[in-house]
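ARCHIVE CARD
Drawer: 12
Card no.: 0347
Subject: one protein chain, sequence and derived structure
Cross-reference: see card 0346
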Amino acid sequence: QVQLVESGGGLVQSGGSLRLSCVASGLTLDLYAIAWFRQAPGKEREGVSCHNSRDGSTYYSDSVKGRFTISRDNAKNTVYLQMNSLQPDDTAVYYCAAIRPPTGYYCSGKQTGMDYWGKGTLVTVSS
């Protein structure tokens, strides 16, 4: 049974940092592209970042580029999202998701086609 479990969310002041973790079980992480999504209150879920296991490429949305960094530790079956310079607009539930990338796959922030999803972790940024 495949599980993705996010952790590391919490309450932080504006300008602060958090590191989210996504621990995968039941799959071999280095065969999967891992993406982070977020859903703010009253808004649609959006793609935040992605790391493609096929070629090591990464994707960041314009709203987090330069502030967030995605990384992975395949030995620990864990993907991280380091979030710096957090702002109140970053307040959301953050989800990780995994896809076994087909040939030609590239990270783009799209939600469709993901094979597995975590249940999310809440990040709250106070002003």
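Annotation on reverse: The two ends are 40 Å apart (CA to CA). The chain is about 0% helix and 50% strand.
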